[in-house]
Specification:
Helix content is about 45%, strand content about 20%. It is an alpha/beta fold. The chain has one domain: Response regulator (Rossmann fold, 3-Layer(aba) Sandwich), CATH 3.40.50. α1 links the parallel β1 and β2. The radius of gyration is 13 Å and the shape is globular. The termini are close together.
Length: about 130
């Protein structure tokens, strides 16, 4: 059974790199992509992903606000969120993300091996899927 990943990021190159990296690792994943907060919320209306990879800086909403919506939802609050950012990389940014409910935080560019290890760890911990 594939894991269900939702990637919310407006950086097309990052999304393609991440999808290619997961394919190379032969990850059995159903990947949905949203390029804005609105698209992400629309995607979440129809499904519950195993894990969300969320950019901090979206074109229509700050990632912290998006995560608050997720964490305030009884249906989605237990879905692990991995924050990613190219701009917000200071310790205070990481702390804000973790205090807001993020399971972890990665700075771009991302090492796909490290990200995959974190995804597996979070899915094992949450029971959200067996990669």
């Amino acid at each position: 059974m594939p894991i269900k990943l939702l990637i919310v990021d407006d950086d097309r190159n990052f999304i393609e790199t991440l999808e290619d990296g997961l394919r190379l690792k032969q990850v059995d994943a159903e990947i949905k992509v949203a390029k804005s907060a609105r698209e992400g919320l629309d995607a979440l209306a129809g499904t519950k992903p195993s894990l969300i990879i969320l950019d901090v800086q979206l074109p229509d909403m700050h990632g912290i606000e998006f995560m608050k919506i997720i964490k305030d939802s009884d249906r989605l609050k237990d879905v692990p969120v991995i924050f990613i950012s190219a701009k917000y990389t200071e310790p205070a940014d990481r702390a804000e993300a973790v205090l807001g409910g993020a399971a972890s935080f990665f700075s771009k560019p991302i090492d796909i091996d490290e990200l995959w290890k974190e995804i597996k760890y979070l899915l094992d911990r949450s029971g959200g899927g067996k990669p």
